[in-house]
């Protein structure tokens, strides 16, 4: 079911989103701060972010996750998580869809967001896409996090595509990194995030968030020369899922 909101309704709906983003951080601030004092407590921070931040936001927005998995995610295993990027809900839905602790690779501009930016800077791998040194430094920091048994999440489109575009071309970084560290690529498909809470301000509203967690692409036998083949295979698989019509 999809609720269509008028202009005033959309303004209030978006205001409510920002309240939901901020309120859990303020309520659980001492615990969040303690969980970011040492990298070894990141799994505890991840649990807090997943259960006391992401879930209340999605359910509070009336956007209920409906997750289908082609096969179970192996507990304790590191994955390179990739998905189509269409909405601010993508971060919350990724946290809810995957239980294994992982670290986001994201643009450094988000550190400017009050309160959220403080924790984003402390727990994410930041990248300045205009700075070659920053991009190369991502590999070193990712290797460090993988060594701690964590996964990595990258939105391979490199940004949010134009709303009329179903799926933009993919950058190489996530796939090059997955091959280098011999971890499987786990694709997720967010089918409804763009309808529920797009970056444009004129539409959206509560409703289900259908998510498909696809079968992982193994990288054990791949070399760096296989990066483009892996990238294109993952994109083709995600695009095929996005083109399959389904009930809202």
List the helices and strands and how they pair.
Layout lengths: L6 H21 L1 H7 L6 H19 L4 E5 L10 E4 L5 H9 L4 E6 L8 H8 L1 E3 L4 H16 L3 E4 L18 H9 L3 E6 L2 H4 L12 E5 L13 H16 L6
Parallel strand pairs: 1-7, 2-5, 2-6, 3-4, 3-5
Antiparallel strand pairs: 6-7
Helix pairs in contact: 1-3, 3-4, 7-9
The termini sit apart by: 6 Å
* Large-scale geometry: globular
What does the average pLDDT come to?
Answer: 90
| Rg, nearest Å | 18 Å
Whole-number tally of structural domains: 1
Can you walk me through this structure?
The chain is an alpha/beta fold and 248 residues long. The chain has a single domain, classed as Glycerol-3-phosphate (1)-acyltransferase (3-Layer(aba) Sandwich), CATH 3.40.1130. The chain has nine helices and seven strands; from the N terminus they run H-H-H-E-E-H-E-H-E-H-E-H-E-H-E-H. Strands 1-7-6-2-5-3-4 form a seven-stranded mixed sheet, with helices on both faces. Helix 5 links the parallel strand 3 (102-107) and strand 4. The N and C termini lie close together (6 Å).
């Amino acid at each position: 079911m999809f609720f269509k909101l008028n202009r005033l309704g959309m303004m209030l709906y978006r205001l409510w989103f920002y309240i939901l983003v901020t309120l859990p951080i303020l309520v659980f601030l001492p615990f969040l701060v303690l969980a970011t004092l040492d990298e070894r407590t990141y799994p505890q921070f991840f649990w807090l972010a997943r259960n006391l931040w992401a879930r209340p936001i999605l359910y509070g927005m009336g956007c209920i996750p409906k997750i289908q998995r082609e096969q179970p995610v192996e507990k304790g295993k590191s994955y390179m998580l990739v998905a189509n990027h269409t909405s601010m809900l993508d971060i919350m839905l990724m946290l809810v869809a995957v239980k294994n602790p992982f670290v986001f690779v994201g643009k450094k501009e988000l550190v400017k967001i009050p309160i959220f930016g403080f924790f984003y800077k402390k727990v994410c791998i930041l990248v300045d896409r205009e700075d070659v040194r920053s991009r190369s430094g991502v590999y070193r920091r990712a290797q460090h996090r993988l060594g701690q048994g964590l996964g990595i999440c990258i939105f391979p489109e490199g940004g949010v595509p134009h709303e009329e575009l179903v799926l933009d071309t993919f950058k190489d970084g996530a796939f090059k990194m997955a091959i280098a560290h011999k971890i499987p690529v786990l694709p997720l498909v967010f089918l409804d995030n763009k309808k529920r809470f797009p970056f444009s301000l004129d539409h959206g509203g509560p409703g289900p968030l259908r998510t498909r967690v696809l079968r992982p692409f193994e990288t054990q036998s791949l070399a760096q020369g296989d990066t483009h083949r892996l990238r294109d295979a993952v994109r083709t698989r995600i695009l095929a899922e996005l083109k399959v019509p389904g009930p809202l």
